[in-house]
Amino acid sequence: MLLSNLTQWSGSTLSAKEAIKINADAGFDAYDISLFGLTRDENFEFNCDNYAEKARELREYADSLGIVCNQSHAPFSTSTGDMEKDKWIFGKIIRSMEIASILGAKIIVVHPKQHLCYADYAEELFNMNVEFYKSLIPYCEKFGIKVAAENMWQNNNGSRVPSDSTCSRAWEFNKYLDAVDSEWIVGCLDIGHVSLMNADIPDFIRKMGNKRLQALHVHDTDFRSDKHTLPFMEKIDFIPVCEALAEIDYQGDFTFEADAFYRGKPEELYPATTKYMCEVGRYLVSKIEEAKNSRA
């Protein structure tokens, strides 16, 4: 099981190359290449005509450090409801799949479409997303990379309290993946998002099983807001989570999405911050392995 960290952190201005070096020096096995900038920043390093060449150069650099790209995160939000803008976003998602594949990623996380109010349009969102994920399969085959859907949440516009959205419950997440019915479309379970829905995280993992669940976004929350901080900083009990992953014989990697743990820290402290994150990750991976061994 590879231990992985993002390359884009809250408040950071570092390039992917600089973040990869910090991750490698800290002891991470892998990095999750963050490609959000494709739709957010026209000056993003891969928003250029020679993006493939830049990706190959970055792959060569990471290889020289002994760290691999295990997965990626495509640009989001995935949809707006504006046909022309959504077509543009789709093109950027395809570019992100190509970049991630060049870097060596086996999985890229692509958010489901959720621009409609889930409470009123759950069925419409389901049909829309099944069609959307099926449309990505030819590109998965072309680039040799799996797409992982992710469990989401929405803000209640009145109370600002998180509420259900696409794939926020295990039964619906499974329904999505089973309807698409392709080895190329799998599930990334965002641990923090499950907690926002007041759902039982270990039970969610067991219900998905290891065929559907092939990637993770690991971070902690206070059950009220999407904190994206390091485990043991908030309220999620991660030991039962590790035990559930062992129970289903989870075969994927352990990837942090705790980018907010860097927030407010000077860049001079990023190496120490990342090293501590790696130590926490190693501890949690060891708990998964111990639980697996006890079941053997």
Mass-distribution shape = globular
Low-confidence stretches: none
Strand fraction equals 5-15%
- Into how many domains do the coordinates divide? 1
What is the helix/strand order?
Answer: EHEHHEHEHEEEHEHHEHEH
CATH class: Alpha Beta
Q: What topology, given as strand order, has the largest sheet?
A: 9-8-5-4-3-2-1-10
What integer value in Å does the Rg equal?
Answer: 18 Å
Termini distance? 17 Å
Oligomer status: single chain
| CATH architecture assignment name | Alpha-Beta Barrel
Mean pLDDT: 96
Major sheet, described briefly?
8 strands, parallel
Fill in the CATH topology: TIM Barrel
Describe this structure as you would to a colleague:
The relative contact order is 0.14. The chain has 296 residues and is α/β, with parallel strands linked by helices. The chain is built from ten helices and ten strands. The mean pLDDT is 96. It has a single domain, classed as Alpha-Beta Barrel (TIM Barrel), CATH 3.20.20.
